[in-house]
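Fold it.
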Amino acid sequence: MNKSRVLLIFIGILILGFVAGNLAYPQYIKKAFPSFPDIPFRLGLDLQGGTHLLYEADLSGVEKANYSTAMEGLRDIIERRINLFGVTEPIVQTQESGGQHRLVVELAGIKDPAEAIKMIGKTPFLEFREMRSEEEVQAIIDKQEEIDGLTYEELQQVDNWQLAYEDAFKSTALTGQYLEKAEVGFNQQTGVPMILLQFDKEGSDIFEQLTSENVGKQLAIYIDGVPISSPVVSETISGGKAQITGDFTVEEAQELARNLNAGALPVPITLISQQTVGPTLGALSLQESLKAGLIGFLAVIVFLIIFYRLPGLLSSLALLLYIALILSLFKLIPVTLTLAGIGGFILSIGMAVDANILIFSRMREELKQNKSFSVSLEEGFRRSWPSIRDGNLTTLIVALILFFLGTSFIKGFALTLSIGIVMSMFSAIFITRTLLRLFVNTRLENTKWLWK
């Protein structure tokens, strides 16, 4: 590669490093340019605290064999709903204790429980209910007449008094779990807004069977336990299309459709506990962790310079640029940094150092064979590349598996490690190589002790 092209690449690297460094740490440049963006790092729950919510799920309408599936669907929908509000890496877990099924939600940076409750509480529970048999309805009416006018104490003496408070409609298997999309439509004759529903394949089959069994009967649509519409089924409906009609304004219909699309819950949930939690580690622990990381990084630089001399110094400069690039990427993406995520970032620095050591070792071997500096440089990179590629690729594969199969904190570790691996390869192969090429055909290339 000719010298002028190397110089142009080097200037580009300097500009990239200047921008990345000031994005990562903008305190100095903002004194001269106040409009320069100051993007904060996004910290996880363990570093900045947040809100802890505990919900209890009502699985009374779900078969026992489907409890696990219903709770998994509930967890996924709540997590998706939260992410729509820009809260990344939430902790959403299911718990079972004493026959009670609960959902734990922890949101980093949300210090106001009311705001967190609003995020989750706006997600409606959609269900279709069918009419009970005439015998069941009559039994409910008879029980209501039996307890009419009784005091609470007298009510307790009546057998099966709870029957009087049962609904004339009973739950079915068709819930928002099977909803594919919801959109606002308008009655062509009256112009009144309504919500058009489209269920997925499984939901369409359930809906078709449900309508075939209830021709000539009412089929009620409930949102959060409140009846919204009770149309009479005139014929079997295939294709999984339904509509919710009612006394809606356009704004109300749009909001309901939007919330249903965000994720109608497969089972109803009730908030039983809420609290604001402080950071697990705290600002002081974070500072100590970063200080330890800095000391370790300086120790690596000293090692590289002592054992590899000028290449070690150039590698240290490339690592500094690598850190600036990574930190600026963490801000721009943005990545929610937990302690596990910081651990993945630090591990990727080690991967970058490993790549440089492989390159320098191969260069030394070439120089010891009395090859020229430029040939030794190119051969060192060429022969070390397969080892660098395979080592980083296998680690990247493991990181991707952790990201797609792991939970929130594991995903944070895998994400920062993956970004770090890709950038470390860029740093070692591109930046370090460019810095070394600057010394080709210079007096310093003949100073053997700098390279051997």
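The mean pLDDT is 84.
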